[in-house]
Design brief:
Shape: globular
Number of helices: 5
Helix content: 55-70%
Radius of gyration: 11 Å
Number of strands: 0
Order of helices and strands: HHHHH
Structural class: mainly alpha
Strand content: under 5%
Length: 79
């Protein structure tokens, strides 16, 4: 299953994340799809949220998969 996060939603998630509202960002993300199902460059946000929600293995998995799926994406390169 391919999960595509709308640009506006991604912006809202990033805003919540930057303000330290991790639980609210996580709940918003879960409304789209479980973090485990996120794909492509969106995995970076999934990895960041997973790390703050106490799932370091899921976070690492997303980081590695994002690198394999979208190695040229600027956000993937940065993280």
């Amino acid at each position: 299953m391919t999960v595509i996060v709308p640009e506006q939603t991604h912006t809202e998630l990033a805003g919540l994340y930057r303000r330290g509202l991790y639980l609210q960002a996580y709940r918003m993300a879960e409304e789209i799809a479980p973090l485990k199902e996120w794909t492509g460059a969106d995995r970076v946000m999934a990895a960041r949220l997973a790390a703050h929600m106490g799932a370091p293995r899921l976070s690492l998995w997303h980081r590695l998969k994002s690198w394999r799926e979208a190695p040229d994406h600027p956000e993937v390169k940065y993280y």
